[in-house]
Amino acid sequence: MSHQERLFPRLDVFGDPIPEAALSRCGTHRLWHPPEKDGIPFGLKAVSFSPDSRRVVSASGSTARVWDLEDGREVLVLSGHRDAVCAVHYVSHTRIVTGSADGTIRLWDAEQGAELRQWSPPGGAISCMALSSNGRTILAGTRASSGSPSSNGFAVLDLAADEPLRWVCPEGAVGNTEFLAFSPDGSRAAVVERTFDLSRLCVFDTAAWSLLWSARDGGEYTPAWAAFSDHGRSVIRDVAGEGWRTLRRTFDTDTGVLLAEAETSFNPPLPLPDGTSIQVSSRKLEFLRDGEVFQEVDSRAHLRWDVDLVRSPDERWATFSKGSSTVVLIELATGRVLPARAHRDRVTRLTFSRDGTILVSSSADGSVRSWDCASGRQEACVDLGQDEDDRYLHLSQGRALVAGHWIRDALAGTEVELEDGCTPYQTVWSADGALISELHSWRGEQFARVHDTRTGKLLRKVPLSLENDDALALSGSGRFLVTGVLFEGRKHWQGSRIWDLESGTSCLIEHGMRSDFTKFAFSPDDAWLAFEDGLQTLALVDPLRPERRLRWELPARLSAFAFSEDGRILATGDHEGRVRVWRVGGELLGVVEGHRALVTALAFSADGSLLASGSADTTVLLWPERAWNPGGH
User: Fold this and answer.
1) H or E, element range at 128
2) Using CA atoms, how far apart are residues 284 and 281, in angstroms rounded to an integer?
3) Which of 246, 461, 506, 621 makes the best surface tag, with the fewest CB within 10 Å?
4) Rg value, the chain, Cα
5) Which residues contact 567 (CB under 8 A, 6 or more apart)?
């Protein structure tokens, strides 16, 4: 690295430095929580906006991170908890409070990140928190660690005092404290306790912390949530009714008398200042006017059924309380979503255009994106409308192919109908996407079919003797098919079968992992089948002579691998974010690193001059041949 490059490192399109040997980065690490171990990121647990709506703090794993809302840059990392942070609140412009499963509550300097105070209430792990409107009192709910009913309850803390003010253990508690809220004037507090099949709403007088009343309801699909009305004279609570109905109940705050009950939507709309409202629907945010949807914004975020929509104090931004490791921000006035022009979950598949100038990637966020390889700039984005699944989607030669009774190119918008149709959930693709094979059973007949995805023509229909087999890999010629099965009564048997579809015969191969957890890939010339033979072992077997094998022991847990188009080079990725490039004979050519989480996808360009690596860090890095092969271009 030259002195000039040290002083002025090359930047991606977001303005962040890229690894020294990389050509470009597609996507960004902004608004994303890195993993703490094993290369696997944790999902978000809680978020909170600053009072001035300029920053947002989010919790994932044992840390909380503060982000600038204008550009998504990381401002602070709050670290010190020994277990997952389950709750976080901005107390003021200068103070943040966090609660963790390690049983502690910590107060932080929101500008410098220094820990100012720590409390350890008598209950178990901290499960939730609530902040009073004056910013002086925190309620912290707990999950019992020992199963003792006396551990269920919540602590009352004065943020200016070193010791908790009070420990409240509600009489007749039905489970862990899962939700807390203050009334607008702070005179009442709502508490929701929940077990798997039972929940209870309690309302307390905060002057003496005495229980005023409680109401039980079903727990399995009832969200741990309640809210006071704006005037504080009533409490609303959504509960699961019969037939997947959701009932909204309204109680008198002081007496607990049921004032009203009406059926409502599962995620009822939230009002906005301009008279419209918003609601969460699947991965989308819907804007409503007079009850009708007039705009939809796809967050491309994994949203749980109990997710909360959190709005900034100035009503400009909204985000989700739970989700993947990326904080997804929606600007309510425009529908703009951040991070923009970037995947918001792990990268799952990669492919180059034939000329090597465009990269196509798919992600667990449900999107397919194309990128300019030289700059890393996004060229196009297509939302598949569903979470990507290997059996439905395949990326190859710059195309994004989706299987059904037809093959659809999601980027080009073209379709090819398959002769005799296809059952997508029992299919597997060849590496180049030219062929697709399906396992099928019909009236006692079991067979494999192979179609040409370019013409739709049925190329093979071969009778097979199957035992609940699952299709795992198809060779480029369509001759070899790998299936795996866990035989009944032999749950620990780990192996697969290589079928020769020309002869209809098969051979067994054993490997160190269950076949449904094992990755497989044929070399383009059908000479080798590569597969995981343990957490840190890659094996290659000759499909014509299964006794002929190669084994590579890797220094870290294997997470991805791919052949070059000429079949002579193989790249492997691991949980530490490193990529190693090998000759198929076993010679290590080079190692490149730059990802902040495990490598999830790899692909070579057609001429082998570029290698792309995708990661659970939501980004793709492009490596020129000289990065991993000293004698390369």
Assistant:
1) strand 125-131
2) 5
3) 461
4) 28
5) 523, 524, 525, 527, 528, 584
> How many whole angstroms separate alpha carbon 494 and alpha carbon 525?
27
Backbone angles phi, psi at 405, to 5 degrees: -75, -5
Domains of the chain with bracketed CATH: 42-338 (2.130.10.10), 376-557+576-593 (no CATH)
| Pairwise CA distance, residues 83 & 140, whole Å | 16
Nearest Cα neighbor of 453 from 509, 518, 501, 393 is 393
Q: Nearest to residue 127, comparing CAs of 111, 143, 148, 106?
A: 143
Return d(Cα 359, Cα 343) in angstroms, integer.
Answer: 14
pLDDT-based confidence at 396, cuts 50/70/90? very high
Is the whole-model pTM more than 0.70?
yes
Q: How far apart are CA 517 and CA 532, in angstroms?
A: 9
Task: List pLDDT tens digits, range 181-226.
Answer: 999 999 999 999 988 788 999 999 999 999 999 999 876 677 888 9
How many residues in the chain? 633
Report the run of H or E that residue 481 belongs to, with start and end.
strand 480-484
Place of tokens 């798997």: 196
- By DSSP bridging, strand 520-522 and strand 470-474 are unpaired
- E-strand ranges in 292-339 read 292-298, 309-311, 317-320, 329-331, 337-338
3-state class (DSSP) for residue 483:
strand
Q: Which helix (H) or strand (E) holds 5?
A: helix 3-7
Q: Which residue has the tokens 């991606």?
A: 12
Q: Is 426 helix (H, G, I), strand (E, B) or coil?
A: helix
What is the Cα–Cα distance from 196 to 324, expressed in whole angstroms?
A: 24
Sequence-ordered list of residues with C-beta below 8 angstroms from that of 602, at least 6 positions apart, any chain? 350, 560, 561, 562, 571, 572, 573, 579, 611, 612, 613, 614
For 626, phi then psi, to 5°, come to: -65, -20
**Pairing of β 292-298 and β 284-289:** antiparallel
For position 431, what pLDDT does the model report? Answer: 92
Burial class for 136, CB neighbours closer than 10 Å (0-12, 13-18, 19+): middle
**Number of other CB atoms surrounding residue 511 within 10 Å:** 19
- Residues 117-144 pLDDT 10s: 999 988 789 999 999 999 999 999 988 7
Q: Which of 60-64, 492-496, 526-530 has the lowest average pLDDT? A: 492-496
C-alpha atoms less than 13 angstroms from C-alpha of 149 in its C-beta half-sphere: 5
**Beta carbons of 225 and 237 less than 8 angstroms apart:** yes
Measured CA to CA in angstroms, residue 377 lies from 12, 15, 68, 357, 369 at distances of 9, 12, 22, 12, 10
For tokens 């229980």, the residue is 211
Residue 66 identity: V
- What is the C-alpha to C-alpha distance for residues 269 and 197, in angstroms, rounded to an integer? 26
